Amino acid sequence: MIAVRVPEPYAEAMRRLVEEGRYGSASEIVVTALERLLAKFREPSPPPVPAELVDRSLRLGRFRATPLAVLSANREDAVVICARLGGWLLYFGDCAYCAWSWP
To answer: How far is the C-alpha of 96 from the C-alpha of 91, rounded, in Å?
Structure first.
């Protein structure tokens, strides 16, 4: 948890925004502001799912993933193929997937 000291004029403006219903709380305002500020420092998203794998992939949370077995019966080869396609390994339960960010 991080404590933030907000000057009174800003605190008053934040209270008004919450009263108007534009935000649920002052904390939400601070988090939103930090997300916007830090967005430019995020790692670039992985590339989208290759077109030839779209119909053999599924959505896992905020990611699109293809089981490694679809890429190759040999797990080590599948990992290399995944890397060449710009994906990364995602483990979900006992299964391994080649994953990409959800567009």
So the answer is: 5
- Render pLDDT for 13-49 as a digit per residue (tens, 0 to 9): 999 999 999 999 988 888 888 888 877 776 655 567 7
What is the phi/psi pair of residue 71, to 5°?
Answer: -75, -40
Q: What is the mean pLDDT of residues 75-101?
A: 88
Estimate the crossing angle of helix 26-38 against helix 8-19, to 10 degrees: 110
CA of residue 12 relative to chain centroid, distance: 33
- Pairwise CA distance, residues 85 & 64, whole Å: 13
CA angle, 17 then 20 then 24, to 5°: 65
Phi, psi of 94 (to 5 degrees): -95, 5
**pLDDT confidence of residue 70:** 92
Helix, strand, or coil (residue 64) = strand
Helix (H) and strand (E) counts in the chain: 4, 4
